Amino acid sequence: MKIHAYLMFDGQCEAAFTFYAQCLGGSLEMMRYSESPDAGEIAEQFHSRIMHVSLRVGDQLLMASDSLEQSSYAGIKGCSISLHVDNVPEAERLFAALSERGAVQTELQQTFWATRFAMFTDRFGVSWMINCVVSEMS
């Protein structure tokens, strides 16, 4: 079994996942609502929104879509995407890239459990944690 995160956006899915692919690498696959066999049943205003996107990085998968109901979208709350990296330079690179124009709750720093740890919300409202544990604390 694998567990993968699935995010919901309100029209920013394409921009968010294009940004995540730039930061994290990997391969991106996107399908719009206009490409659905049921596109005729979906309001024209939502046709350019993302029905499903997946970002594959190695054997990891992050997925998402855009909401069709603007009034019901409440943002992404109550969870974080947690990245576990093997070295400090990669933790620093990811923190700088993903937190740009976001809101930092915890700067990338050494903690009692990690060589480096950070918490932030990116420009799209997604909460992230970066955790880097290496054998020799630096």
Question: Which helices and strands, and how do they pair?
Answer:
Elements: E1 5-9, H1 13-24, E2 27-32, E3 50-57, E4 60-66, E5 81-85, H2 88-99, E6 103-109, E7 116-121, E8 127-132
Parallel strand pairs: 1-4, 5-8
Antiparallel strand pairs: 2-3, 3-4, 6-7, 7-8
Pfam family, one: Glyoxalase
Domain Glyoxalase/fosfomycin resistance/dioxygenase: 2-130
Protein name: VOC family protein
Briefly characterize the structure.
17% of the residues lie in helices and 36% in strands. The protein contains two helices and eight strands, in the order βαββββαβββ.
Any overview of this molecule?
It comes from Pseudomonas zhanjiangensis. Residues 2-130 form the Glyoxalase/fosfomycin resistance/dioxygenase domain. Pfam families: Glyoxalase. This protein has 138 residues and is of the alpha/beta class. It has two domains: 5-72, 2,3-Dihydroxybiphenyl 1,2-Dioxygenase, domain 1 (Roll), CATH 3.10.180; 81-132, Signal recognition particle alu RNA binding heterodimer, srp9/1. It is built from two helices and eight strands. The chain has helices at residues 13-24, 88-99, and strands spanning 5-9, 27-32, 50-57, 60-66, 81-85, 103-109, 116-121, 127-132. The strands form two sheets. The protein has a four-stranded mixed beta sheet, with helices on one face. Strands 5-8-7-6 form a four-stranded mixed beta sheet, covered by helices on one side. Strand 7 and strand 8 (127-132) form a beta hairpin. The longest helix is centred in the first third of the chain and has 12 residues, at 13-24. The relative contact order is 0.19. The mean pLDDT is 93.
